[in-house]
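Progress report, Aim 2. The chain analyzed during this reporting quarter is listed below.
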Amino acid sequence: MTCRSRCRGKHGKPDVVLGGKGASHRLGKMLSDAKLLDWFSNLDLYKACRAFARLVASSIDRSYPIQDALSHSERVAILASAIGKRMNLPLAGVANLYLGGLLHDLGKLFIPADILLKKGVLDESERAVMRLHPVIGAKFLECQSFFKDLAPVILHHHERIDGKGYPRGLAGEDIPLGARLIGVAEAFDAMTASDSYRTPISVEDAITVLVEHSGTQFDGGVVQALLEELKQAGVTER
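Predicted structure tokens for the chain:
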């Protein structure tokens, strides 16, 4: 993936850049941690599937109004895999989180453009259509042998710990751990990214939201792991 020169960190390695009320946040530590996935890159099948996932993610993220150096899907992939590593998940699990992050919005490719790109608030019928995107994405992955294990993660990444999410209304540990991880990573990026449809908020405010909704919308353990990762990565406002 090609990054603009402003996103190059030390030694020419790209940093993750997140927006937030004009602030730029460098998550280079997380991106370098993602290098652990290089072990899997030696496997031709994984490498090919990762390339496919990145291609799909780039197609999805072209709909965002502002194109940042790293796409929403790429940032979610990096954040989710970093959280997984922090939680001591097996290497294969961390690698699958990266793929899941890239593909979490796959179903949006099949959502009508007038709904997907609508700038205003969606009405009830439009929200119902939009909420089909995890179901559509999961159905597609179920038909692909290498990606089928990701289907439950994609299907349930909008569930809530209190059971008030969608599409199945699962609660607590009935929600796959990978889905809980990607749900937190996506929420954090959606709140802070400059390429979001919404006005971004600061990292500090995003952390406050995640903590306030831990145990209801978000898995508290996953939120805590993200906070620890952000602290170690030195994510601060500029």
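Residues 31 and 78 are 6 Å apart (CA to CA). Residues 28-232 form a domain with the Hypothetical protein af1432 fold (CATH 1.10.3210.10). These observations will guide the mutagenesis work planned for the next reporting period.
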